[in-house]
Write a structure and sequence with these properties.
It is a single chain. With 120 residues, the protein is of the alpha+beta class. 21% of the residues lie in helices and 28% in strands. The chain has two helices and eight strands. The protein has helices at 5-20, 96-104; strands spanning 24-28, 35-38, 49-52, 60-61, 64-66, 69-74, 77-82, 86-89. The protein has a three-stranded antiparallel sheet, with no helix packed on it. The chain has a three-stranded antiparallel sheet with strand order 5-6-7, with no helix packed on it. It has a two-stranded antiparallel sheet with strand order 2-3. The longest helix has 16 residues, at 5-20.
Length: 120
């Protein structure tokens, strides 16, 4: 089976942006919280320490996820934060080709972050 270069480039273009996308912890939730609890392990009963939001050095890149928790690195050490206590920024990309085709057929598309003007 012979695969042409445009097909390979199209496949790589779809895969590569997802590998570089990084979700980040950007703020506490609610926004009025002055501290964020940091846990040694996910599902820990008590936080290992608290960090002042003003000194936290946000955003933190999320290293991994477990139910209800996000792993972050702070000052070179791994910690976990409760997902319900922080706000997350998720990198998204729009696939404008698929959205444009769906729009011409009267169907709707659900690409996170792709508003009606995202592909113009």
């Amino acid at each position: 089976m012979k695969v042409t270069s445009p097909v390979i480039f199209a496949l790589l273009a779809a895969v590569i942006p997802a590998t570089f996308a990084q979700d980040k912890v950007v703020a506490p939730s609610p926004a009025t919280s002055a501290t964020i609890d940091l846990y040694e392990q996910p599902d820990a009963a008590h936080p290992a320490r608290q960090i002042n939001v003003g000194q936290a050095g946000l955003p933190w890149i999320i290293q991994s996820k477990q139910t209800g928790f996000y792993q972050v690195i702070i000052d070179g050490k791994d910690y976990w934060v409760r997902g319900s206590k922080v706000r997350i920024s998720r990198d998204t990309t729009a696939n404008c080709g698929a959205v444009a085709v769906a729009a011409t057929t009267g169907l709707t598309a659900a690409t996170p972050g792709a508003g009606k003007d995202a592909c113009k």
